[in-house]
Amino acid sequence: MTLTAAASGFVVFLLFVQVIQGWDYYGVTYSSTEICAVKGSTVEINCTYRYPSRIDGGDTEVKETFWFTKLSGYQPVDLSTDSDYQGRVEYSCYERYYKKSCTLRITDLRESDSAEYKFRFTTNQQDGRYTGSPGVTLRVTDLQVKVSRSSHSNRRELKCHSSCRLPYRSSYIWYISGEKIQSQTSSTYLLYYDYGDSYSCAVKGHEDFPSPPVCINDKICYTDRSICASKGSSVDISCTYSSYQTIRSKFWFNHERSHQWQSPSQPEDLSEDSQFGGRVQVLETETGRSTLRITDLTESDSAQYHFKFTTQWSELRSSLPGTTLTVTALQVQVTRTTVHQSDTEAELKCHSSCSPAGRLSYVWFKNGQKVTGVETSSFKGRVYPGDIISCALKGHENYGSPSVYAPRLPSVSVSPSAEIVEGSSVTLTCSSDANPAAKYTWYKKNGDPDLQPLSKEPQLVFSSIQSSDSGEYYCTAENELGRRTSEYISINVTYTPRLPSVSANPSGRIMERTPVTLTCSSDANPAAKYTWYKENRTLIQGPEGVYHFSNIRSEDRGIYYCKSENQYGEINSSSLFIDVQYAPRLPSVSVSPSAEIVEGSSVNLTCSSDANPAATYTWYKKNEDSPKASGQIFTITDIKAEHTGNYYCEAQNRGGRHNSTLQLIVVSRSMKSVAAGSITSLFLVIIFLFAFFLIRRKRSTKRIAEGPDNNAQPNVGPVCDNPSAAAQRNPSEEQDDLYYATVSFSKNQEDPLYSNIGLAYPKRQKHEEEEEEEDEAGVDYTFVNFKSSSASPELRCQEDSVEDPSALYSTVTKNPRV
Questions:
Q1: What is the bridge-based pairing of β-strands 388-393 and 404-405?
Q2: 125-129, 600-604, 785-789: segment of lowest average pLDDT
Q3: What is the reported pTM?
Q4: Which domains are seen in the chain, by residue range?
């Protein structure tokens, strides 16, 4: 038998009545109004429908067709979108000529699928909606094993039974203590001997949905080994039992409550336990079956439950484990969302990890207020920021689910909260109250509209934070119901100064007497303090890093650098060379050889000047336009008399120019011998004068030694006519006398004694380029110093004389050139 055939055989049509509903040609016809099916099978519910082809001249078109069993906000819930039927529902609808039909197919039937099913269609006409009501009632039941004793022997007869009529010629499978019996395929099984603890059956092809096990001959079998139920709901725990003896007592218990028993080895009736007071009920629906019903379930009710009975001669407990009950709380599950700008359209489901037994009614709450018109496990509506939604089982509102809501405003924190130093480990944490739990994303504020997330975890971790990580950060918290953004948190990373950069302004050529500013800058946090140095000599300290020359000088030329420091360290900059440029200083000129210059000899005129950049030199002769030579040295190899004259050199750079003059006198060879004789005569005159003054001094000393003349007249004033009067002066008034022999040379004389070189020093003018040369007479002096204890009166008188041919000095004058 195929699965489809077996499934269709499971369906029993109890009432074959054609139902037509409608008005004005609208209508729905169901094939049957009641259907009974076995748990685990497949069922098909069929209908046909009709509608007017045209209304008011307009053609009628069907826009929507679906089946439903429940409402949400007074609106039918499409069965194909109901999470309780997910993956188990299929529609087969078509229109052919005048026949329009739709079939609902439900697989893997559950007892909770028992309900009334209705068909609804919608057209394009105004008010063109129609629902076939009443619908089709589906009842899903379990298989049961019925035990009876044979009238002619001690044999037991087991029958696989259902309240729904089973398919004709169905094949069955029998189980003894959970093990399949291969030889048995009929609905009846004759038991000659008790081989096992329990017996159950199933329809072939649906082995996953066997009947509850039954027991015979003083045994206890449990219907379900494991049950899961929602907090606040009710649960039935059943078992079957059998005994040849008269049963005197029976009750349910669980070992979790053994600490309440008077004797740990003697179980006590659960119905008398104070924890279950008023919540426990034992039902005997049929002989040999006991059901423990627990209402208002709590999570503490999770335990393993057992059944026990006693007879006159024995006490019996099952050798098999009891039924394990797990109680879980309801949860609101977000199944579908559509995000809008100001809210979220969400579809929610009141969910439990346990599948509730039977069809239950639910209550929904929004912001603490009950939502009217919704009693299903699903809720669909708009959720705004701040809304909270929960659900509960109807009649058990005190056991509602935890509320679901969009994230609250996230809070952000940083660890460590103290000062953050570069290279340390830093963690940013984002947290928000949200249910379902929020997902987090971290961003750094940088003005980019397409921000790339830094992390999608609650924590953003910097294992070794860098200065570039300084800035403002924020996070977002998001779940299915909304999204919130945190405030900014600022991260300030402190670090040692980076290598300073140094610069000069102006950055190009630096001229003397101009303002210059040196600037030092370094990236540091906290801000650095700066120190300027010139070749290891401290110039200035401060936070600005600026050193200013208001009027830079040539001696400021040199190598400079700065130091940047804060509390985390210090670092020196690279060197900065300051080259101060200036115009040439007054040049220094000289002649070589420095002795007299004779015709035919070679002469070097040298010029030098302090300048930056180095000066270029040009030699000129006075009153001549064209230069004589360039370079520091001007060489005349065969000098002649016509070379006599004033020469000047000009030192020049881009800063300016300056010049100096020297006088060159060339002596002919014939005049050289005359000059030599004259010089010899001059030296003889000097020696003669020296001897004369020496003799006079000795005589004066002798007179003083002989004593004063008593007949001498008092000296009232200077007596220049009487030499003896001068001799009578007080010796204490005598002083050393200095005598000068001045020798000068006149340019205009042709005396060979004057063949020499005299320097002309020009006066500096306010504008260096407009200097006016002015020659001065060069005068050579010969100083003769005579030291005497008594001055000669004759000499003193001679000093007062305007003109005396016997003067002891000779003057040779060199007239200045006009």
A1: antiparallel
A2: 785-789
A3: 0.52
A4: 3-140 (2.60.40.10), 329-405 (2.60.40.10), 411-494 (2.60.40.10), 501-581 (2.60.40.10)
